[in-house]
Design brief:
The protein is mainly alpha-helical. It is 72% helix and 0% strand. It has 6 helices and no strands. Helix 4 (80-109) packs antiparallel against helix 5 and helix 5 (116-149) runs antiparallel to helix 6. The radius of gyration is 20 Å and the shape is flat.
Length: 189
């Protein structure tokens, strides 16, 4: 495979992404792993697929749960605001499922076209978007369930707590790990 197929250092393609497909800067450059650029892209693609499998399962379980809610007797008691929130959460869950499945379909569409570097780059972006959508759905779900079970104030508190947790786990913690990895030399051991 030539350098155009997998990107050249500094051109912003996957070949320049020594940090890995999901933005993991702790990922060492290919030469430190004794692998070619094509091998690194293949490894990063496999790692991304493993991550997506885990997230897709959670998103699909959430979506399945949400799809049966309207068929429960108590759903008739939900007011207009609760129904609107339910529909927003359901839409986000469904959309996140589609976005998280898209990398597999994109890969199938360009299979054997020697564009895995671009598929990897696009798929990593889609994974981030899908995770963000799923995270917002979780915040909305916490608001919905707590509002229905305890009341609207509890729903707002639950949504705020979930939003803080999501922000801390999906943005703050990875940023700290990325910063630490960038400032700490890599030691092969």
């Amino acid at each position: 495979m030539n350098s155009e197929e997998h990107g050249r250092p500094g051109d912003g393609t996957a070949g320049d992404l020594a940090e890995g497909p999901a933005g993991d800067p702790s990922e060492e450059p290919a030469e430190e792993r004794d692998e070619t650029e094509a091998q690194r892209i293949d490894r990063n693609w496999i790692e991304l697929l493993q991550e997506l499998r885990i997230v897709q399962t959670g998103g699909q379980v959430l979506t399945g749960f949400l799809l049966v809610v309207p068929f429960q007797d108590r759903f008739a008691d939900i007011g207009g605001g609760g129904r609107a929130l339910y529909l927003v959460v359901l839409t986000l869950a469904l959309a996140s499922t589609v976005v998280l499945l898209a990398p597999v379909m994109i890969h199938r569409a360009v299979f054997r076209s020697h564009r895995k570097d671009r598929v990897l780059q696009l798929s990593a972006t889609l994974a981030r978007v899908g995770l963000a959508m799923l995270s917002i759905a979780l915040v909305g779900l916490a608001a919905l369930v707590f509002s229905l079970v305890v009341g609207p104030v509890a729903g707002l508190v639950a949504a705020a707590v979930m939003a803080v947790l999501v922000t801390a786990m999906l943005f703050v913690l990875p940023a700290r790990v990325r910063h630490r990895a960038a400032t700490t030399p890599y030691y092969a051991g």
